[in-house]
Amino acid sequence: xxxxxxxxxxxxxxxxxxxxxxxxxxxxxxxxxxxxxxxxxxxxxxxxxxxxxxxxxxxxxxxxxxxxxxxxxxxxxxxxxxxxxxxxxxxxxxxxxxxxxxxxxxxxxxxxxxxxxxxxxxxxxxxxxxxxxxxxxxxxxxxxxxxxxxxxxxxxxxxxxxxxxxxxxxxxxxxxxxxxxxxxxxxxxxxxxxxxxxxxxxxxxxxxxxxxxxxxxxxxxxxxxxxxxxxx
Length: 232
Prior knowledge:
There is one protein chain. The chain has one domain (9-220): Green fluorescent protein (Green Fluorescent Protein). It is built from two helices and 13 strands. By secondary structure, the protein is mainly beta. The chain has an eleven-stranded mixed barrel. It has helices spanning 56-62, 79-82; strands spanning 9-19, 22-33, 38-47, 71-72, 88-96, 101-111, 114-124, 139-140, 143-150, 153-163, 169-180, 193-206, 210-220. The two termini are 24 Å apart.
């Protein structure tokens, strides 16, 4: 329940896996406000650095995967905060328009007053001359995820755009499944809603090895375009 979470929550993460056969391992620490939907972290590559690819493809598993830090408005039940103290997991596939493909599995748990994330990554088929492997990505544009219930779990889909040099964008489709460690009967499931996310790499502290990152996220209904039938 949300009562297990404080206005300021620390978190730590471990991310390991391979991208185009290159093994890496990262560790990170940060903190944020789960109820305002903001968080900051510093992540370091402790094995396999400097990364021979754009860190951006991992950053979505750091923060876009840190689902506890989302500001829920309009009375939407917060699936993620309800899942504590047990926590939750998620699986995600990300398909890039240039053929790159990334799968991720994350486990979120609560250790005392600290959130703990463990992430496994497998990335394949990124073109050698593309912006990911050439490390020419600039930033993620803001994105919106649609979220809905399927058989007692929460599903998410989104289209994200990675800004590249020359005003170009590399887009990707994300399909996520979020699973509470509590039974569905113990949760109040949310209806169809949206999650707005802004991920920003604030600083590359050491090239290919250390990054500072920020995210803001809000979950909402489609209030800007009201329904005449009374739907959210």
